[in-house]
């Protein structure tokens, strides 16, 4: 038996009966006002009864009116685009919070640098620099501009503003906040209202968030490049065979190595954790003229196509050794290992990869 059927019908009836309380009666608002003429009854027929209590004047709201009612705009939203950024919904001011991401040594300094980058983009500077106390005041710059003429020949400044930015850092120094406050405003076209003030403050804040995001993305790429550059080096395993050495623990190397090799045209055939071996197959990538034109040429490694085995072991000094064997399980000679290592390091640097 379908027990949900009567329940659904009951719910529908309840919703219908409570519709008047759920949806507010805003019919008399000038924006919603629309009352048409009554029914024209032919001669000889009675006019339908209409209760005088509900009779409304025939009228239609003028949607083309230039009244102030059309000028309402929603509040500007803080756009937490940067990694580790967030906002409090209860904040009544333009404010954003940043968490200290990996690679950032001084969070407040990173925020100030992002703000300085925004001011440079606007060709303006700082009037009062008290960042040691957590605040600065900017010179004049424009957030609102409009284009006139063809293309971008004429850019008209609608208004210009000055802001105060404040950075507050928690005692644990893992979180900091940035807030913006409008200090001065000048415009011959647009008067300042409370809504416009809020929009300008949040827009100024969003520019800093975007700059923070851009700078951290560049930092993350550099960190990956440095980590990739340092993650592999030439050496020998505990048996004296030429190998690649890394400081990454042996238990973590297996998965990370296989993921890395798949991105440089190796195919992982088997991951043997009992023997600490990764069996792989290499196929050199096809090169095309278009790849060279667009600068997307894949790196060709100095090894022949075929199957290989990478043995993962630990050296006496605690490093992890990667020893390469060919399809006949013969250890690759030192010269081949050196060329292979240099090629892999080049891939790590160019792509920002790491093991």
UniProtKB/TrEMBL annotation:
Signal peptide: none
PROSITE patterns reported in the protein's UniProt record: PROKAR_LIPOPROTEIN (PS51257)
Name the UniProt record assigns to this protein: Outer membrane protein assembly factor BamC
Name of one Pfam family that matches: Lipoprotein_18
Coiled coil start-end: none
Organism: Pseudoalteromonas rubra
